[in-house]
Amino acid sequence: YKYMRPKSSTFFKQWAGLFLLAVPLAATAANDTIRVNQLGYYPHQEKIAVTDCRDIKTFTVTNTSTGQTVFSGKPLYSASSEWSDKVRTILDFSPLKVPGNYQLTIDGKYTVPFSISNQALLPLSRAALKAFYYQRCSLPIEETYAGKWTRPAGHPDTQVIIHASAASSERPAGTVISSPKGWYDAGDYNKYIVNSAFTIGLMLSAYQAFPEYFTKLETNIPESGNGIPDLLDETYYNLVWMLSMQDPADGGVYHKLTTPSFEGFIRPEDCKQPRYVVQKSVTATLDFAAVMAQASRLFTPYDSHFKGFSEKAIQAAEKAYAWAAEHPESYYDQRRLNSQFQPAISTGEYGDRNAQDEFFWAATELYLSTGKSMYLQDAAKYAPHQYTLPVWGNLSALGVFSWMQASAQKQEAGQKFLPGLKQSLIHLADSLIQGADVTPFHAPYGHHTQDFFWGSLSDQCASQGISLIHAYLLSKKETYLNNAYRNMDYLLGRNATGYCYVTGIGFKSPKHPHHRLSVSDGINEPIPGFLVGGPNPQPQMGLPAFTCAPDEAYLDQELSYTTNEIAINWNASLLTFSAMLDALASSENGQ
User: Beta 69-73 vs 176-177: how paired, if at all?
Assistant: First the structure.
C-alpha cells in the first residue's frame, strides 16, 4: 500500500516471543457501557452518546455540581454493527448547551461523565502541538517544559555518514556531515524527509487558515513568549534539520537519516548504531521544495527573528525543484538499494513511485511564493483530476489547501484546475456524510471495513474531518462542519473500543503506545498528546490474528506497532483537525 510505512521485521522477530503469552487472541471492547467524547463538547455542538445496552427506555443528564437533573430523553435510534450481532443505541442530548460538568445515566443504572466547554478542544490542540517538542532530536528535554518526561539529549547527529547510495564526487561514501535537530519520526528514532515535509505542510495549512488562533496557542516550549507563534517555532526546529539534508552541490535531498536497523526499546542516549543519510529521491526532494517554499512565505513576517530564513528557504526550494525536474524517476526503492549497497537499510521506507502529487504541491507552493509563471504552468500540468484525502503518500490536498487560501488574484491564475478541484472536494464531502446520521456510531468514519488500516485514525478519520472543514470553509454548509465534529467524537471515545485514542486525554486512553521514548523512560504514563494508529485488522508479525470486528481490532500493547504506534504525520492530522475546529468554535463564541 502506498500509504503504509513498512517497518523492518528483524527487531520484531527478536522481541515477539517476550510478548506472545500476554496478548489475547483478539482485542475486544471493554465493558464500557456508554461511549462519549471524553474531552468535551462545545455548547453549540451536537451531543451524542452511544451504548451497547438494549431495550433502553430513558436516559438522564445530571449536573455534577448541583446534583440536579437538567435533561432527560429517549433513544434516538438503534443500528446494527456491520460485522457482529451488536446493536448500538444512540442518545441525543444536543439541547443541553450550558457549560459545565455532567453525568449521563441510562435507566438509572449506568453512568458516564462528560463536560461542555466553550474551549472543548483547546487542551487537545495544545497537547498535540506540544507532543512535537517531546520528539525533538539532539536536544535535552528539560523539566521546565516537560515535567517528569525530561531526558538528556539523544542523537546529536553531528557525525552522520554518507551512505554508499548517497555518494557523489563531492561527498564520497563515508564522508561525515552534520545534520542535527529535527523530530524523531514515529515510535522509532530516525528522521525522514518525506514524512517531515508532509507533517509541516499540513500544520502550516492550518496556520494559513487560522493564523490568529495559532498566535495565541502557547504550549510551554523553550521558545514560548518570544513573540513568534509556537507552531512556527516548533516547525522551524525541524525545518533547520531539513535544510541540512540538501546536497549543496546539486540541490538534491537525501531521503532519510537513519540507522541501518531499528534500535531496540532503549533511551536515545543509549543508542550506539551509526547513522547515515541515504539516497537522494525525487519524492523527498519535491516534498522538501514544497515545504520550504511554503515556509518561506509564512515565515516572512518574522524574518528578522529567524535571521534570513525565508530567503534561504526559497533558494533551497528552487534548487531542489530544479534537481527533481532533472531526475523525475529517482524513486526510493529500498530493496533495490540493498541489492547494490552496504550496509543494508531496513528502517521505514516511505516508498512512493508516483511523483505527480509531489510535483503539483511543490509547483503550487513555489508559484504562490515567487509568482513565477514556470511554476504555475507546472501546477496546471500536474494538477490532480480529483481531490483526495491528505496523507503522506498522496499530498496533493496540501496544494489544494494553499490554492484555496491564496489571494483572489492568485486563485484567478489557477482557474484552469482550481474550480474543478473545489467541486471535487465538495463531491467527496457529500459522499462522506451520506447516511452518517444513521450509522452505529453516528459519524462518517467507522462503518466500512476499508475504514480500518495502519494509521487509519489519522489517514482516514482525521483526514476526513479536515476535508469536511475545508468543504465548510468553501461552502459555509453547516452539515459538513457538524460531521467533522462527529469524527472528532469518534477519535475521543465514541467508538467500538471506548478508547479516547490520544495519550493522556480522557478517562480511557492508550497506556502502552509503540513509542520508544515512552517505553524506555521508566515512567508509567506515556508521553501525552499522541494519536495512536487505531483499529487495524491487518495481521502483525509476532501476534495472533484478530478475530473480532475491524473496529475492535485494537491492542494497547507496546509491541502492536500496527495499532498502537505514534507518528508525527498522525499528530499533524490530530493538531490540524482539533485546532481548526477549536478556531471555528472560538470565532463563533466571540473569543
Answer: unpaired
List all residues 6 or more positions away from 567 whose beta carbon is below 8 Å from its beta carbon.
5, 185, 186, 187, 195, 455, 458, 533
**Which amino acid, residue 250?**
D
pLDDT in tens, 397-410: 999 999 999 999 99
> Which sign, positive or negative, has the C-alpha torsion 404, 408, 410, 413?
positive
Alpha helices by DSSP H, 171-221: 193-209, 211-216
Q: At what angle do helices 463-475 and 418-433 cross, to 10 degrees?
A: 120
Largest CA distance in the chain: 77
Query: Order of strands, edge to edge, in the sheet holding 256-258?
Result: 176-177, 160-162, 276-277, 256-258, 191-192
Residue 188 bears catalytic tag: yes
pTM of the model: 0.94
Catalytic residue among 32, 188, 349, 437: 188
Residue listed under C-alpha cell 484552469: 416
pLDDT digits (tens, 9 = 90+) for 64-120: 999 999 999 999 999 999 998 899 999 999 999 999 999 999 988 899 999 999 999
Strand ranges of the sheet holding 59-63, from the earlier edge strand across to the other edge: 69-73, 59-63, 100-106, 110-116
32, 185, 287, 565: which is the annotated catalytic residue?
565
Q: Clarify whether 250 is annotated catalytic.
A: no
Of 163, 470, 514, 515, the active-site residue reads 514
State the cell numbers at 537. 485488522
Known catalytic residue at 521: no
Angle between helices 396-404 and 356-370 (to 10 degrees): 30
Of 451, 459, 556, 558, the catalytic one is 556
Q: Is 482 exposed, middle or buried (0-12, 13-18, 19+ CB in 10 A)?
A: middle
